[in-house]
Amino acid sequence: MPLASVSILGPVAPGGAEIPYFLPSVPAGFPSPAQDHIEQRISLDELFGLHRPQIYLARVGGDSLQGVGILDGDLVLIDKAAKAKRGDVLIACVNGEPLLKILGGDQHQVILLSANPKYPPRYVLEAEDFQVWGVYVGLCRQGRHCG
Fold it and tell me: Is residue 125 part of a domain?
């Protein structure tokens, strides 16, 4: 799949459930006795701003953004109210095709960039229909299925 395409899944419905949060961090090596002490409980809704109506989910298809840690099959959180600026990962729609890319270019030329050297930049031509559908603000990945 040459471009990081996206499947729009829709708005995120707040769940309200709280989960344990360990401070300052959980070691990735040997377990620590300190893990028995939960410091606080947090809501993922609050942490990721999921209660905001402008946040929606999209599933990534493709590997063109693997250089910035966004992999095929990931779920990305998109803020449709955020103003896109150069260097942002965003969902752009070019001629009706939604793409997940990095915004490049300047005020005269829009360039959609990959983060994988296999894929060239996508120059948006003046005659093409171009829209920004939102800016990437977060990532969800299922750990057991990571390659």
Answer: yes
pLDDT tens-place string over residues 81-119: 999 999 999 999 999 999 999 999 988 899 999 999 999
Find the CATH number of the domain harbouring 125: 2.10.109.10
Max CA-CA distance within the chain?
62
pLDDT digits (tens, 9 = 90+) for 31-70: 555 555 556 666 666 766 666 778 888 889 999 999 999 9
pTM of this prediction? 0.72
State how far the Cα of 9 lies from the Cα of 59, in Å rounded to an integer: 7
Distance CA 85, CA 126 (A): 19
C-alpha separations of 131 from 61, 85, 109 in Å: 19, 13, 14
- Tens-place pLDDT, residues 93-102: 999 999 999 9
Q: How many domains does the chain have?
A: 1
Q: Is 83 a catalytic residue?
A: no
**Residue 101 designated active-site:** yes
Catalytic residue among 64, 80, 83, 114: 64
Say which amino acid occupies 27.
Answer: P
Give me the catalytic one of 32, 43, 80, 101: 101
19 found inside a domain: no
Q: How many CB atoms lie within 10 A of CB 90?
A: 20
